[in-house]
Amino acid sequence: MTNTKKKVTNSSAIQKRLIPSYIFLIIVCFISVFPIYWMLTAATNASFDVSTGKIWFGTHAIENFRGLLKSSIGSGAPLSKIMWNSFKYSAVQTVLCIFVCSLAGYGFELYHDEKKDKLFAVLLLAMMIPGVATLIPLFRMMSAFHLLSTVAAFILPGISTPFMIMMFRQNSRNFPVDIMEAARIDGLSEFAIFFRMYMPIMKSTYAAAAVITFMNAWNAYMWPRAVLSDNKAMTMQMLVANLSNGYSVDYGVLMMGVLFCSLPTMIIFFVLQKQFAEGITGAVK
């Protein structure tokens, strides 16, 4: 009986000590979730209600959606075309980026060479350079190759990033080297090992990299604004920026556009959140 009472007392004491932690987590969750809630409510309210701080759902969702459709056509392309542009650019860049960066990370970690680490250190230095600093040189390169206002101009600068290469290299340390040696004994080529052994085992890392790359490509604004001068090649971020220009801004329509911008990345993250967590922690299967 005495031991049972002590256990109950200790459990109660632990729960009381955790109360401040619970309160802190509730506050943090509220701060994180409230902007999403406000975005949803603002997309259903009139511009005046949004500007006055109304934070509950309204009845202007259909009007705001119609206004978004009208604004997209006024910008030079229908909303469906703009959404398709964003998805097409982001999907192609994601596939190419995770393939190129995984191949580089695989080589950096699993093939040994004296100069490899020096080359990787130089590569990591590129992470210290802000993207704005390379904007003009990249633009001039795309102009010299006559790639402006094309899918290639949007995609090429993002198909290989130091962060993705570093991520794949770090997670490749968990890849069992014995499998490579056994595969070589069985006669598999190096590319066959990569495609048939490495990629299936590192699928969690691929999922995490895909989520990060897709979100970065989808949310890109400055680079597409610089290279995509054709309105038919416009992305969702550019459309939302256009909605906020002018002397008067319809905040209901603007938040409806923000909602359409946010939905694809939110859906992809919720679908792949388990694999994303495993890939970030370096788990392999």
Terminus-to-terminus distance: 47 Å
Supply the helix-strand structural class.
mainly alpha
The coarse silhouette is globular
CATH topology of the largest domain: MetI-like fold
Low-confidence stretches: none
Q: Beta fraction of the residues?
A: under 5%
CATH homologous superfamily heading of the largest domain: MetI-like
The average pLDDT value, as a whole number, equals 84
- Tell me the number of structural domains: 2
Q: Which architecture of the largest domain per CATH?
A: Orthogonal Bundle
Multimerization status? single chain
SSE series? HHHHHHHHHHHHHHH
What is the tally of helical segments?
Answer: 15
Based on CA atoms alone, the radius of gyration comes out at 25 Å
The CATH class of the largest domain turns out to be: Mainly Alpha
What are the SSEs and their pairings?
Elements: H1 2-42, H2 47-51, H3 61-74, H4 79-110, H5 116-125, H6 135-144, H7 151-155, H8 162-172, H9 177-185, H10 190-201, H11 203-219, H12 222-227, H13 236-243, H14 251-271, H15 273-280
Structural summary, described in words:
The protein folds into 2 domains: 18-52; 77-280, MetI-like (MetI-like fold, Orthogonal Bundle), CATH 1.10.3720. Helix 4 crosses helix 8 and helix 11 (203-219) packs across helix 15 (273-280). It has 285 residues and is mostly helical. The longest helix has 41 residues, at 2-42. The mean pLDDT is 84. The chain has helices at residues 2-42, 47-51, 61-74, 79-110, 116-125, 135-144, 151-155, 162-172, 177-185, 190-201, 203-219, 222-227, 236-243, 251-271, 273-280. The two termini are 47 Å apart.
